[in-house]
Amino acid sequence: MSKVYPLTGIRVLDLTRILAGPLCTQYLGDLGAEIIKIENPKGGDDTRAWGPPFLGTESAYYLGINRNKKSICLDIKTKEGFKILKDLIKKSDVVIDNFKPGFWNKIGLPDNWFNKNVQNVVRTSISGYGVKGPQGGLPGYDFLMQAESGLMKITGEVNGEPMKLGVAIVDIVTGLNAVISVLSGLLLNKKLKNKNILTEVNLYNSGIFLLANVASNTLVSNKDAERYANGHPNIVPYNLFKSKNGELAISVGNDNQFKIFTKLLKKPEWATDKRFAKNADRVKNRTLIEKMINKELSKKNRSYWYNLFLKNNIPSAIVRGVKEALNHPQTKDNDMTLKLDKKNTKSLETLNTPIQINNQRGLSKPKYPPSLGEDTKKVLKNILNIDDGEIKKLISLNVIK
User: Fold this and answer.
1) Where do the structural domains in the chain lie, given as residue ranges?
2) What is the mean pLDDT of the chain?
3) What are the φ/ψ torsions at residue 301 (nearest 5 degrees)?
4) Which of 23, 132, 142, 211 has its CA 20 to 30 A from that of 382?
C-alpha cells in the first residue's frame, strides 16, 4: 500500500518559471501533489541555463527548485497546444502561473471560461505588483523589490550604501505565500462546493510584508527606519562581536539575560549602570556598550566565549560559511540535504523541505528534477488519452517536444 501524503491526489498545473513559482510548486510536490510543469519548447524555464555551476546540462539553480515535477514541452500559442492546455486545466485541481496580470484574458481564457468549464479549481497567480496602484500590471524582479520596499535601505553598513540580501528573499517569501494561498484555496473549496477559487500574490506586497517589526516601528513613531548593519533597532546587545580570533553573533533578548551576560564577562557592574540596566537604556547608548563588549571579548578565543555562553543560556552563534553550514552535523542530523538519483545522470545533492510531519522529514518520495519535456508523452497519454499517432503529429507540428 502506497503512503498517503497531505496533498496526495491533488494535481497542479504549473505555468511558472524562475524562482517564486517553481519554489511554490516544488513545496507542493514535497507535500505529495502531482506537479505538471508546462514549459515552452524553446529552452523551457530560463533558469535551466542560469549557470555555472551545472550538473550535466542543467544549472544548479534550476535543479534546486524543480524536484518532484513532470515536465511537458507545449507551445500554447498554437491551436493544438492551446486545446491541450485547456484540457489539462480541466483535469487539474490547481493552476499556478507567474505571468503578468491579464495573461488569461489575453490568451482567451477569462474568468467566465473557468466558471463555465471547470469546477473546484484553485487558481493562483504570482505577479510583480498585482493589478492595483500606479505600477499595477508591471513585471517585477526580486532585486527591484528589495530596492522599492525599503529592504535595501535598512540593509548594509551604517554609513554604507543600500545593500540587497545575499539570497532572493522576496522571491522566496512570495513562493511561500503562494503555497499558503494554494492550501487556503483547497481548504476553502471543501466549504464552497463547485466553486472556483482565485488567489493572488505579488512580489511587491511580499517585500512590504517582510519589513515586519521595522514597518511597525515606522508606522508608530512616524520616523524613517535607520540602518543598523548587523545590529537590531530595538534590542542591544544584538550584533556581531569580535573575539580574539573571530566573530561571534550574540543576541541578548532581555534584561535578565544581560545580567548573566555581564557576569560572564566579569563586568557585573554594567547591569546596574543606569546607562545599560534596561534595554531601552542600552538602545540609547548602543555605540558605547558595544565598544565595551568588544573590548572584553577580544581577550579570549571565540570557542571559549561560545561554549561559555552556550552553557549559561546566552544566545550566540559562530559565523559560518555556506559550505561549512551545509556540512555541519546540525544540518546533517536534521536531514536538511538529500541525494536524488536518476538513471544515466549524476547524483544530485539538494536542500530538503524544512518541515516535518509525524517525525518524517521527506514528506513524499523525492523525484529528480525533470529534463526538458521528459514527461510530455506520458502526460498526454495517461491524462488526456492521446494516442501515439496523434503525439507524432503534434511533434511534427512543433506543438510538443
Assistant:
1) 11-210+344-396, 238-318
2) 96
3) -70, 160
4) 23
Helices 376-384 + 79-90 axis angle, to 10: 60
- Outline where DSSP puts E strands in 276-387: 316-318, 337-342, 345-351
Give the whole-angstrom CA distance, residue 242 versus residue 158.
17
Q: Establish whether 171 is a catalytic residue.
A: yes
Taking Cα atoms as reference points, which of 299, 297, 278 lies closest to residue 240? 297
**Rounded average pLDDT over 233-239:** 97
How far apart, in whole angstroms, are the C-alpha atoms of residue 205 and residue 177?
10
Which fold would CATH assign to domain 11-210+344-396? Rossmann fold (3.40.50)
93, 111, 171, 388: the active-site residue: 171
- Helix (H/G/I), strand (E/B), else coil: 335: coil
State the residue for C-alpha cell 524543480: 66
Strand positions, DSSP E, 238-306: 238-242, 247-251
CA 398 to chain centroid: 34
**Is the Cβ–Cβ distance between 352 and 335 less than 8 Å?**
yes
Q: Spell out the long-range contacts of 274-282 with Cβ–Cβ below 8 A and sequence spacing 24 or more.
A: 279/234, 279/235, 279/236, 279/254, 279/255, 282/236, 282/237, 282/258
CB-CB neighbours of 285 under 10 Å: 16
Query: 37: part of which helix (H) or strand (E)?
Result: strand 34-39
Report how far apart, in Å, the C-alpha atoms of 301 and of each of 87, 177, 245, 325 are. Answer: 65, 42, 5, 20
Confidence band for 360, pLDDT divided at 50, 70 and 90: confident
Q: What is the pLDDT of residue 350?
A: 97
For the chain, the 3-state helix, strand and coil shares in percent, each to the nearest 5, are 40, 15, 45
CATH of 238-318, one of 3.30.1540.10, 3.30.230.10, 3.90.220.20, 3.30.470.20: 3.30.1540.10
Which grid cell is 335? 536531514
State the cell numbers at 153.
Answer: 535601505
Tell me the backbone φ, ψ of residue 278, rounded to 5 degrees. -110, 150
